[in-house]
Structure prediction request, 177 residues.
Amino acid sequence: MIETERLIMRPWEDRDRAVLRAQCDDPEVMRFLLPVLDDAAFETMLGRLAGWITDHGFTFWILERRDDGVVMGMCGLKPGAPDTPIENKVEIGWRLGSDFWGQGYAREAAQASLDWAWANLDTPEVVAITVQANKASWGLMERLGMTRDVDGEFDHPLVPEGDPLRRHILYRIARPA
Prediction:
């Protein structure tokens, strides 16, 4: 578990299922991510979250607001996707419900995730990906001190040919000296 001034970051539990499902059903939340998830894809996602923590010791942790216990979304670390330039790298990512956007929660959680990575993992860098249109996410990447790797842009193999979300941009941050 990771704690910040306003957040508790922890592995998902069954009690989080309804909130995560609602976020996966929200077209605004999912606008720059994969399509709205059907039940099978949702269960696969939950399995991946649990598998990452079991296999790697990190995951996209649940973001719970400290003062009232409200679950706001997820943020954390995962292994980079296979068949992409970030395979076998540590990837940071976040997804919050739209009610929590613009309040600094994603930045607080992402910084805590980076701090955790530097303290607990032997990785020379952490990477992040998004689509060009997702200005909020790449803006946060830059505020975290990440640098865009223009030569690292790629077509994500999980996104169908012709989909405007297929092309991904890549950001990197090196381990602090």
Notes: The longest strand covers residues 71-79. The radius of gyration is 15 Å.
